[in-house]
Design goal:
This protein has 491 residues and is an alpha+beta fold. The protein has eleven helices and twelve strands. 52% of the residues lie in helices and 18% in strands. The protein has a five-stranded antiparallel beta sheet. The structure holds adenosine-5'-diphosphate (ADP).
C-alpha cells in the first residue's frame, strides 16, 4: 500500500502538484468543451489530467521513499543514488554531506583518543615526577608565583611537620605550610624570590630549625622557575641539613691545627739541633751522634705523618693501585714488629709476639698491609704507659687469618669506639698521652676493609687496655699478571 509521506512539506508539495494538475485539467476541459461543444470530450480531458496527476504523485511518493531508504542505509555511495529520479540530486547532495559529517566524526573520535592517550601519559609522568621528588632525601617545596605552597615532597613533610602530632603518613601540606610560616627566614626567602628582589634567580640562606630541644642548622636554596618568556611560574626551595658539613668544617680546622702541631714539634727540634751542630757547639762525637740520631728519628716521624696523609688520600680517591701477592702472613708481621721495636724500647714497653706455628698463606699487598699493622702497633705503644705490654698475635680460624694487637694501655671509652675509624678523630681523653692527627686508624680501616676484603674490630676497657682484631681471608691466589706497582709512600 502506498502512503503519502507524513512529512508536512512533502504533503504540501503533493497537494500543490495535484491541485495544479486538476486546475490545468479543468482549463483544458473547458477549452475542449468550448472548441468541440462535447461534454464527453471535456470529461475525458479532465479525467486524463486527474489520472496523470495521480500517477505522477504515486511516482513521486515512490521515488521519495526510495531516496529515504537509500539515505538510511549505511555505506552511502553516490552511484547507487543516481537512479532515484526526481530526488537524485537531493539525495546525492545529502549523501555527500552525510559522508562529510561521518568523516568529521571519525576524525573527532580519533582526536579524542589521541588526547586521552596524551592525558594518560601526562598523568603517568606527573606521578613519576612526584614519586621521584618524594624519593629525594632533601626536603623540597614548590610555591606558585604568589608564594602559595603547591607541592611538598615526603622529606619536607617529615622535616617541617616533625613537631606536630599527626602521624608521618597523614601529614598534609597545610601543616607543612604552617611550620614554614613559623620560620621567618624561609618565608622571607620565598617572598623575596617571588618578588624578584634579588638580582639573581637563586638565593641561599642558612637558618635553624627547632626540632624538640635541638636546633638543626639548615641551608635553603630558592630558585625561580620561569617559562620561555621569562615569566615567573613559581619558586622551588631545596633544604638541606648542614650538621655534617659544619662538623666536617670543625674537624678540618682541628686537623689543620693538629697537623701543624705534629709538624712544628719535630721541625723545631731538628732546627735547634742542626744549628747546634752547624755552629760547632757540640764538640763531643758521642753527643754529636746522639743529636744526629734525634734528628733522624724526627725526620722518620715527619715522613710517617706525611705518608699516612698521602696514602689515605690515594686510597680514598681510588688512585691507589695495590700489588697483592701470595705470601706468608707471619713474615709481614715480623717486619712490622721490627719497625716498632725502637719506639717500644724507648718507653720500656714489653713488645712480644705470639705468632701462629702454622703457615698462614695470604694474598695481600705486603707494603700496605704491613703499614696497617705498624699503625696498630705504634698506637698500642703510644697509648700504653711506660713499662706496659704490647703483644702481637696471629692465628688461623677456619678459612680466615686473624691478627690481634693487644696492649695494657689507657683504653678507649665506649662512646668513642663508634667514631674511632673516622678521619681526624682523636679520643679527647687520650690526647695528652701522645700527639697525633687521627689519621692512623682511618688508614688501617681503608687498607683492611677496602683493599683486602677484611674486617677490623676493637675491644677496649678504660685503664686496662685495648685489643684491635684484624681478620682477612686465608689462602693464596693465582699470581696476577700485568699489575702495576703500588704507589705507596714508604713509611
Ligand atoms: P692518632 O694519630 O691520634 O693516633 P689514630 O687514628 O691512629 O690517630 O687513632 C685515633 C685515636 O684513637 C687516637 O687519638 C687515640 O686516642 C685512640 N687510640 C688508637 N689506638 C689506641 C690504643 N691502642 N689505645 C688507646 N687509644 C687508642
Amino acid at each position: 500500500m502506498t502512503h503519502i509521506p507524513r512529512n508536512s512539506e512533502a504533503r504540501k508539495g503533493i497537494t500543490r502538484l495535484l491541485t495544479a494538475s486538476v486546475v490545468v485539467g479543468a482549463v483544458f476541459a473547458v477549452a475542449t468543451y468550448a472548441m468541440l461543444r462535447s461534454p464527453m470530450a471535456a470529461a475525458l480531458v479532465l479525467t486524463g489530467a486527474i489520472v496523470g496527476a495521480a500517477v505522477e504523485t504515486l511516482l513521486v511518493i515512490r521515488d521519495s521513499r526510495k531516496a529515504v531508504a537509500r539515505m538510511r542505509c549505511s555505506g552511502l555511495e553516490s552511484d547507487r543514488t543516481l537512479g532515484i529520479g526526481l530526488y537524485a540530486d537531493l539525495v546525492s547532495e545529502a549523501c555527500r554531506r552525510l559522508n562529510q559529517y561521518e568523516q568529521q566524526t571519525q576524525e573527532a573520535v580519533a582526536c579524542k583518543t589521541r588526547l586521552e592517550a596524551r592525558v594518560s601519559v601526562r598523568r603517568k609522568l606527573d606521578r613519576q615526577l612526584k614519586a621521584a621528588l618524594d624519593a629525594l632525601d632533601h626536603p623540597l617545596l614548590i610555591v606558585d608565583s604568589h608564594g602559595q605552597l603547591q607541592f611538598t615532597n615526603r622529606a619536607a613533610r617529615d622535616w617541617f611537620a616533625a613537631g606536630c602530632e599527626t602521624p608521618a603518613n597523614r601529614r598534609s601540606e597545610s601543616q607543612t605550610l604552617c611550620a614554614i610560616d613559623h620560620i621567618a627566614a624561609l618565608a622571607d626567602l620565598i617572598e623575596q624570590t617571588c618578588a624578584r628582589e634579588s638580582a639573581t634567580d637563586r638565593r641561599t640562606i642558612q637558618f635553624e630549625l627547632k626540632h624538640a630541644a635541638e636546633a638543626i642548622p639548615c641551608r635553603a636554596t630558592a630558585t625561580g622557575l620561569r617559562d620561555d618568556d621569562g615569566g615567573l611560574l613559581g619558586v622551588v626551595v631545596a633544604v638541606s641539613d648542614i650538621r655534617d658539613e659544619q662538623q666536617a668544617k670543625t674537624r678540618h680546622a682541628e686537623f689543620v691545627s693538629s697537623v701543624s702541631h705534629e709538624l712544628k714539634t719535630p721541625m723545631a727540634g731538628i732546627k735547634a739541633f742542626t744549628e747546634l751542630l752547624m755552629e760547632g757547639d757540640v764538640a763531643d762525637t758521642d753527643e754529636q751522634q746522639e743529636l744526629y740520631g734525634y734528628i733522624n728519628t724526627q725526620v722518620d716521624r715527619l715522613t710517617r705523618l706525611v705518608n699516612n696523609m698521602l696514602n689515605l688520600a690515594r686510597i680514598e680517591s681510588g688512585v691507589m693501585k695495590t700489588q697483592r701477592k701470595d705470601c706468608e702472613l707471619n713474615d709481614v708481621l715480623k717486619r712490622a714488629l721490627d719497625v716498632v721495636r725502637p719506639s717500644a724500647e724507648e718507653k720500656q714497653i714489653h713488645l712480644t709476639s705470639e705468632l701462629s706455628d702454622l703457615y698462614l698463606p695470604v694474598h695481600i699487598d705486603q707494603d700496605l698491609f704491613g703499614q696497617a699493622v705498624i699503625n696498630l702497633l705504634s698506637n698500642a705503644v703510644k697509648y700504653t704507659p711506660e713499662g706496659g705490654d704490647v703483644c702481637l698475635r696471629s692465628r688461623m680460624e677456619s678459612d680466615l687469618a686473624v691478627i690481634d694487637v693487644r696492649d695494657s694501655g689507657m683504653g678507649i671509652p665506649a662512646e668513642a669506639v663508634p667514631r674511632l675509624f673516622e678521619r681526624f678523630y682523636r679520643v679527647e681523653q687520650n690526647n695528652k698521652a701522645a700527639a697525633g692527627t687521627g689519621l692512623g686508624l682511618s688508614l688501617v680501616h681503608e687498607i683492611v676493609t677496602e683493599l683486602h676484603n677484611g674486617v677490623i674490630d676493637v675491644q677496649s676497657t678504660v685503664n686496662q687496655g685495648t685489643c684491635f682484631t684484624v681478620t682477612i681471608p686465608l689462602g693464596h691466589a693465582q699470581p696476577m699478571r700485568g699489575k702495576q706497582e703500588p704507589i705507596l709512600a714508604a713509611t
